[in-house]
Design a protein that fits this description.
Blueprint lengths: L7 E6 L8 H10 L3 E6 L9 H8 L15 H7 L3 E7 L1 H8 L6 H8 L4 E5 L3 H5 L1 H12 L3 E2 L3 E4 L5 E5 L3 H13 L11 E7 L3 E2 L5 E2 L6 H12 L3 E7 L9 E6 L2 H11 L5 E4 L6 E3 L20 E3 L3 H7 L7 E8 L7 H12 L3 E6 L10 E8 L4 E8 H16 L2
Helix pairs in contact: 1-2, 1-8, 3-5, 4-7, 8-9, 9-13
Family: In the C-terminal section; belongs to the PPC synthetase family.
Organism: Nocardioides cavernaquae
Function: Catalyzes two steps in the biosynthesis of coenzyme A. In the first step cysteine is conjugated to 4'-phosphopantothenate to form 4-phosphopantothenoylcysteine, in the latter compound is decarboxylated to form 4'-phosphopantotheine.
């Protein structure tokens, strides 16, 4: 999405109250240097007027096929787009798209586009769960479109539930992920993947805990990348303060025991499990109900530890789903017993997973950084070196390996 000619984005807006949020999405596209054409439906213009879209995009706006008919906009716009993002996508708009209807400029554009198409639905829960909408979404996905799962939260009026438009910043990130892969087929469509992220906390008392430096950035990049490749994604997040990736179900946990319970509950329905979280190896044998005080004589309390469950080993060696691909992570520094790769190779055999993502974290590298590099070790002996790049690029390298194994 950088360098060369500006990426040509079509932002379709259909008629829902969430249309106003797409102004923020448009701003993110334009501020990133993208050439954006806004194509609203007539109903969308009841919520946000054409002058707003024109001012924010720097281009004239029309919703019908008759404006500047000599330029054949109903064909031209879709033919020349690099990506089409429809946000919000109402039940009505997706029904028309699924059945090939073309009664306005946006639906004509969807029929002529040969680029990736991303739908960000927004509607009431009952509409999202209706069999007609379920069937239409399935049809769109089967054709290679990305239909993001809506978020849960406050809807129009006093209603709350699933159907809320995902955060515009996260829709933008999904679009970035899709564009990074060009016209690639969403190879994870029809799969359910489980990703863990962040670092667990083991409490000593109400205010202190044992923890680690995991930021959750790599796990969130994995979740976002999987969603952009068409997967249904469950993300178990341990103490991560990042916004929910668009289209991803997020389960929040704190301790290793909570992480284990959430992973074990979701793993049986997952085609792939990627354990990017950093669970604490140990927890205090006892937790004080009150804050541990300093002693007057300067002595320090003794903290007795016990081992936490080995989640990766458990789900690898007791699989409840045939053909499931399980990926572990190894943050290693190397020591007197072996190098980073030697220790990681032993861990791969000990855990029983299919792939192990090896990070050399000597000197605190990786933690909190937007970049990463890794070595992917496979149980079948394959090794893939992933050069330093964004955590998104590393995530896609991991999913490339997972996808190839799921299709075997």
């Amino acid at each position: 999405m950088t360098g060369g000619a500006a990426v040509r984005v079509v932002l379709g807006v259909s008629g829902g109250i969430a249309a106003y949020k797409s102004c923020e999405l448009l701003r993110r596209f334009t501020e990133s240097g993208h050439d954006v054409t806004v194509v609203p439906t007539a109903a969308a213009l009841e919520f946000v007027g054409a002058p707003t879209w024109a001012a924010l995009s720097g281009k004239p706006v029309a919703s019908d096929v008759w404006t500047r008919v000599e330029a054949v906009p109903h064909v031209h716009i879709g033919q020349h787009a690099d990506i089409v993002v429809v946000a919000p996508a109402t039940a009505d708009l997706m029904a028309k798209a699924a059945h090939g209807m073309a009664d306005d400029l946006l639906t004509n554009t969807l029929l002529t586009a040969r680029c990736p198409v991303v739908f960000a639905p927004a509607m009431h829960t009952e509409m999202w769960e209706h069999p007609a909408t379920v069937a239409n979404v399935a049809t769109l996905r089967a054709r290679g479109n990305i239909v993001i799962e809506p978020a849960e939260g406050r809807l129009t009026g006093a209603d709350t539930g699933k159907g809320r438009l995902p955060d515009p910043s996260e829709i933008f990130e999904i679009a970035r992920e899709v564009l990074s892969r060009g016209a690639s087929v969403p190879d994870l469509a029809g799969t359910h993947v489980l990703v863990s992220a962040g670092g667990t906390r083991e409490y000593l008392d109400p205010v202190r805990f044992l923890g680690n430096r995991s930021s959750g950035l790599q796990g969130y990049a994995l979740a976002r990348a999987a969603a952009s490749r068409g997967a249904e994604v469950t993300l178990v997040a341990a103490n991560v303060s990042l916004p929910d990736p668009a289209g991803v179900k997020v389960v929040r946990v704190e301790t290793t025991a909570e992480l284990r319970d959430a992973v074990v509950a979701a793993a049986p329905s997952a085609d792939a499990v990627v354990m990017a979280a950093a669970p604490a190896d140990f927890r205090p044998l006892g937790v004080s109900d009150a804050k541990i005080k300093k002693s007057d004589d300067g002595s320090s309390p003794t903290i007795e530890l016990q081992q936490n469950p080995d989640i990766l080993k458990e789900i690898s060696q007791h699989r409840l789903r045939d053909g499931q691909v399980i990926v572990g992570f190894a943050a290693e520094t190397g020591d007197s017993t072996g190098s980073v790769l030697e220790l990681a190779t032993a861990k791969l055999a000990r855990k029983g997973c299919d792939l192990l993502v090896v990070n050399d974290v000597s000197g605190g590298a990786v933690f909190g950084s937007p970049d990463n590099e890794a070595v992917l070790l496979a149980a079948d002996g394959e090794r893939v070196d992933v050069p330093r790049g964004s955590k998104s690029s590393v995530a896609h390298a991991i999913w490339d390996q997972v996808s190839s194994r799921l299709s075997r």
